[in-house]
Amino acid sequence: MHEAVQLPRRKHRRSLSPEFQHAFALEVLKTERLRIIALIVVATAVADGLGAVDLLVPAVLDRIWHGRFPVLFLAISYIVFVSFEASVLVLIGARTKRGA
Question: Which DSSP state fits 67?
Fold first, then answer.
């Protein structure tokens, strides 16, 4: 028969103070805010770069994509992505102001 395996018991953690939890949550929100801003900047640079290349030398992108470059898909994707990230940014800003 199989012997019962004894798993090591977890050590009880000390509970963190509410002040520390609050400060930690605010720092996480600040970090998320920076991440969102970086994502929006990078997405804007990529969309602008691809749009400029498509405007100036469309043959290059057509050769890479093996057909017509999907500018409309790029624009719609960019708008949806940035709108979502901006809405999260607004929520984080409101939460940070409320929590501060």
Answer: S
Q: Say what the pTM is.
A: 0.76
pLDDT tens track, the chain, 100 positions? 567 777 777 666 678 888 888 889 899 999 999 999 999 999 999 999 999 999 999 999 889 888 888 889 999 999 999 999 999 999 999 988 887 6
Spell out the domain ranges in the chain. 33-99
Region label for 66, one of left (φ > 0), alpha (ψ between -120 and 50) or beta (otherwise): left
Look at the block and give the residue holding tokens 């979502």.
Answer: 84
Distance between CA atoms of residues 48 and 26, nearest Å? 33
Q: How many residues does the chain have?
A: 100
The residues near 51 (Cβ < 8 Å, ≥ 6 apart) are 71, 74, 75
